[in-house]
Amino acid sequence: MSNRSETGMSVRRKILGDAHVDAAEAAKTELDGPFQDLITEAAWGTVWASDAISPRERSMITLALLAATGNFDEIPMHIRATANTGASIVDVQEAFQHVAIYAGVPRANHALKLAKATFAEMDATKAAPGGKDPKK
Question: Can you tell me the distance from the alpha carbon of 98 to that of 110, in angstroms, rounded to the nearest whole number?
Protein backbone atom coordinates (compact mmCIF):
# COMPACT_ATOMS: atom_id res chain seq x y z
CA MET A 1 0.00 0.00 0.00
CA SER A 2 1.44 3.38 -1.01
CA ASN A 3 1.77 6.31 1.37
CA ARG A 4 -0.98 8.18 -0.52
CA SER A 5 -3.20 5.10 -0.27
CA GLU A 6 -2.60 4.83 3.49
CA THR A 7 -3.30 8.54 3.94
CA GLY A 8 -6.40 8.23 1.77
CA MET A 9 -7.76 5.31 3.75
CA SER A 10 -7.18 7.18 7.01
CA VAL A 11 -8.92 10.34 5.75
CA ARG A 12 -11.73 8.31 4.17
CA ARG A 13 -12.39 6.58 7.50
CA LYS A 14 -12.26 9.89 9.40
CA ILE A 15 -14.77 11.56 7.06
CA LEU A 16 -17.11 8.69 6.12
CA GLY A 17 -16.72 6.49 9.20
CA ASP A 18 -15.42 2.96 9.66
CA ALA A 19 -18.79 1.29 9.01
CA HIS A 20 -19.15 2.89 5.59
CA VAL A 21 -15.56 2.18 4.55
CA ASP A 22 -15.66 -1.39 5.90
CA ALA A 23 -18.83 -2.06 3.89
CA ALA A 24 -17.30 -0.56 0.74
CA GLU A 25 -14.11 -2.58 1.20
CA ALA A 26 -16.08 -5.79 1.79
CA ALA A 27 -18.07 -5.20 -1.40
CA LYS A 28 -14.95 -4.54 -3.50
CA THR A 29 -14.50 -6.96 -6.38
CA GLU A 30 -11.96 -7.62 -9.10
CA LEU A 31 -14.01 -5.32 -11.35
CA ASP A 32 -14.14 -2.25 -9.12
CA GLY A 33 -11.01 -2.81 -7.01
CA PRO A 34 -8.77 -0.60 -9.19
CA PHE A 35 -11.46 2.13 -9.14
CA GLN A 36 -11.73 1.94 -5.34
CA ASP A 37 -7.92 2.22 -5.11
CA LEU A 38 -7.99 5.24 -7.43
CA ILE A 39 -10.57 7.15 -5.40
CA THR A 40 -8.84 6.24 -2.13
CA GLU A 41 -5.55 7.66 -3.41
CA ALA A 42 -6.81 10.58 -5.51
CA ALA A 43 -9.98 11.78 -3.80
CA TRP A 44 -9.14 10.90 -0.21
CA GLY A 45 -5.32 10.75 -0.23
CA THR A 46 -4.84 13.93 -2.26
CA VAL A 47 -7.89 16.20 -2.37
CA TRP A 48 -9.51 15.50 1.02
CA ALA A 49 -6.09 15.10 2.71
CA SER A 50 -5.03 18.63 1.76
CA ASP A 51 -5.10 21.10 4.61
CA ALA A 52 -5.49 24.12 2.30
CA ILE A 53 -9.19 24.32 3.26
CA SER A 54 -11.09 22.81 6.16
CA PRO A 55 -13.11 19.58 6.00
CA ARG A 56 -16.21 21.74 6.63
CA GLU A 57 -15.51 23.86 3.55
CA ARG A 58 -14.61 20.79 1.50
CA SER A 59 -17.89 19.18 2.54
CA MET A 60 -19.88 22.23 1.41
CA ILE A 61 -18.05 22.36 -1.93
CA THR A 62 -18.53 18.64 -2.50
CA LEU A 63 -22.26 18.79 -1.78
CA ALA A 64 -22.71 21.81 -4.06
CA LEU A 65 -20.76 20.15 -6.88
CA LEU A 66 -22.67 16.89 -6.56
CA ALA A 67 -25.98 18.75 -6.71
CA ALA A 68 -24.92 21.10 -9.49
CA THR A 69 -23.75 18.24 -11.70
CA GLY A 70 -26.77 16.06 -10.93
CA ASN A 71 -24.73 13.37 -9.18
CA PHE A 72 -27.40 12.78 -6.56
CA ASP A 73 -26.45 9.22 -5.55
CA GLU A 74 -23.55 10.41 -3.38
CA ILE A 75 -25.40 13.26 -1.65
CA PRO A 76 -26.75 11.12 1.25
CA MET A 77 -23.24 9.74 1.91
CA HIS A 78 -21.80 13.26 2.04
CA ILE A 79 -24.70 14.52 4.19
CA ARG A 80 -23.88 11.75 6.69
CA ALA A 81 -20.23 12.84 6.52
CA THR A 82 -21.20 16.30 7.78
CA ALA A 83 -21.33 14.74 11.24
CA ASN A 84 -17.54 14.33 10.90
CA THR A 85 -16.64 17.40 8.84
CA GLY A 86 -18.35 20.03 10.97
CA ALA A 87 -20.60 21.27 8.15
CA SER A 88 -23.91 22.32 9.70
CA ILE A 89 -27.43 22.20 8.34
CA VAL A 90 -27.10 25.93 7.64
CA ASP A 91 -23.89 25.26 5.68
CA VAL A 92 -25.74 22.68 3.58
CA GLN A 93 -28.62 25.12 3.04
CA GLU A 94 -26.19 27.79 1.87
CA ALA A 95 -24.39 25.41 -0.49
CA PHE A 96 -27.68 24.37 -2.09
CA GLN A 97 -28.82 28.02 -2.33
CA HIS A 98 -25.76 28.60 -4.52
CA VAL A 99 -26.68 25.57 -6.59
CA ALA A 100 -30.18 26.98 -7.14
CA ILE A 101 -28.83 30.28 -8.45
CA TYR A 102 -25.86 29.04 -10.45
CA ALA A 103 -26.90 25.55 -11.58
CA GLY A 104 -30.69 25.43 -11.38
CA VAL A 105 -33.58 25.25 -8.96
CA PRO A 106 -34.59 21.64 -9.81
CA ARG A 107 -31.13 20.32 -8.91
CA ALA A 108 -31.05 22.27 -5.65
CA ASN A 109 -34.60 21.17 -4.84
CA HIS A 110 -33.75 17.50 -5.36
CA ALA A 111 -30.55 17.84 -3.32
CA LEU A 112 -32.53 19.42 -0.46
CA LYS A 113 -35.03 16.56 -0.60
CA LEU A 114 -32.18 14.06 -0.24
CA ALA A 115 -30.57 16.10 2.54
CA LYS A 116 -33.85 16.32 4.50
CA ALA A 117 -34.36 12.57 4.30
CA THR A 118 -30.78 11.81 5.30
CA PHE A 119 -30.72 14.27 8.22
CA ALA A 120 -34.04 12.77 9.41
CA GLU A 121 -32.53 9.28 9.18
CA MET A 122 -29.48 10.45 11.15
CA ASP A 123 -31.72 12.00 13.83
CA ALA A 124 -33.83 8.82 14.06
CA THR A 125 -30.69 6.71 14.50
CA LYS A 126 -29.47 9.07 17.21
CA ALA A 127 -32.84 8.92 19.01
CA ALA A 128 -33.17 5.14 18.81
CA PRO A 129 -32.40 3.16 21.96
CA GLY A 130 -28.69 2.41 21.82
CA GLY A 131 -28.41 4.73 18.81
CA LYS A 132 -25.19 6.53 18.15
CA ASP A 133 -25.19 10.31 17.87
CA PRO A 134 -23.94 10.82 14.28
CA LYS A 135 -22.68 14.28 15.20
CA LYS A 136 -20.24 12.97 17.81
Answer: 14
Q: Do 96 and 112 meet the contact criterion of CB atoms below 8 Å apart?
A: yes
- Rounded (10°) CA dihedral 11, 131, 123, 99: 20
DSSP character for 88? -
Domains of the chain: which residue ranges? 1-52, 53-136
Read off the pTM: 0.89
115: left (phi over 0), alpha (psi -120 to 50) or beta: alpha
Query: CA of 70: how far to CAs of 24, 31, 88, 96, in Å?
Result: 22, 25, 22, 12
pLDDT value at residue 133: 52
Rounded distance between C-alpha atoms, residue 97 and residue 95, angstroms: 5
